[in-house]
Amino acid sequence: MSAEKSSLHTRNLHRNPYDFDQLISCVPELKHYVFENAYQTVTINFSIPKAVKLLNKALLLHFYNIKGWDIPDTNLCPPIPGRADYVHYIADLLGKQLDTIPVGNSVKGLDIGTGANLVYPLISQRSYGWTMLGTDINQDSLKNAQNILDQNEDLSTAIQLKSQPDAGHIFTNIIGSDDRFTFTMCNPPFHDSEESAIKGNIRKTKNLSKSKKTKPLLNFGGQQSELWCEGGELAFITKMINESVLFSSQVLWFTCLVSKKDNLNKLTNLLKNVKAVEVKTIDMAQGQKVSRMLAWTFIPQKNRKTGWFKVRGFKV
């Protein structure tokens, strides 16, 4: 057994090594991909797409009671522990406005680019009871996300989906004039071209499989909107920040993941220029991978409790 994954958030349910007996009892097919490696650790080969997908299915069923989770082979297969970390760090951010972490359906989150996997809304709702809206520009992704919801009827009012009809916008067409969100979240496209995305996938495949393969495996596939956009991560988040100004009074905290550390200075300078009243950068480490959550708000400190949290038991 490997040691606790101490780099994960303290409330992350995936800090301990995977109990594969338990996970196989949830998804029996997973047993065909589980083995003991040279270090006497029970694991799976993370370069095999089917194995990763079955592991995710078991994790979501066992820890979050999500039934029938599945995604097409052409879509991005997310690492559940890392996705959960983002949710927990958002909870910490919101908790600073109160004496405790806010739970309940009056906390409303917006997931930009929710994808076919719907992982952020699922984990957010199951962990804290938040109401979530997932958006995407890809109709096939939304169709698959809706299929997941259809198999979990108790989520029908807690998680909604909305199509973004214009790839040139992020919040426009999504946030209505009467809408208010406690937070937004986004894992933006990382690469700046399809060629760059393919090279990155081949590199990741080689690292995981210790091979000389020159073709990316399918669990590192993904639709264009999931993996790349013109200008890459920096251009996408720049657009997000500029557009967030239009909805500055309707969202308490805007947040976004930033993979490239070199992008942070440009983004924080832009946030100063658009007059965000507070900006936070929170480091998140999952194993060897380090990412950052960039968060900003236009709401003055004195106005951050009133009207944003109506959770039973909290004094707001």
Please tell me about this protein's structure.
By secondary structure, the chain is an alpha/beta fold. It contains nine helices and nine strands. Helix 4 links the parallel strand 3 and strand 4 (131-136). Helix 3 (80-95) packs across helix 4 and helix 8 runs parallel beside helix 9 (264-273).
Helix/strand layout:
Elements (H helix, E strand, L loop, with lengths): L19 H7 L7 E3 L5 E3 L4 H16 L15 H16 L12 E5 L6 H10 L2 E6 L2 H12 L8 E5 L17 E6 L7 H16 L14 H4 L4 H13 L6 E8 L5 H10 L4 E9 L2 E9 L19
Parallel strand pairs: 3-4, 3-6, 4-5, 6-7
Antiparallel strand pairs: 1-2, 7-9, 8-9
Helix pairs in contact: 1-2, 3-4, 8-9
What's this model, at a glance?
With 316 residues, the chain is α/β, with parallel strands linked by helices. The chain has 9 helices and 9 strands. The strands form 2 sheets. The chain has a 7-stranded mixed β-sheet with strand order 5-4-3-6-7-9-8, sandwiched between helices.
Features:
9 strands, about 325 residues, seven-stranded mixed beta sheet, alpha/beta, two-stranded antiparallel sheet, 9 helices
- The strand count comes to 9
Overall morphology: globular
Walk across the major sheet and give the strand order. Answer: 5-4-3-6-7-9-8
Based on secondary structure, the structural category is alpha/beta
| Span of the ends, CA to CA | 45 Å
Task: List segments where confidence is low: pLDDT < 50 over at least 5 consecutive residues.
Answer: 196-206, 212-216, 218-228, 312-316
Biggest sheet character: 7 strands, mixed
Rounded Rg:
19 Å
Strand content: 15-25%
Q: What is the helix fraction of residues, given as a range? A: 25-40%
- Strand and helix order: HEEHHEHEHEEHHHEHEE
How many helical elements? 9
Mean pLDDT equals 86
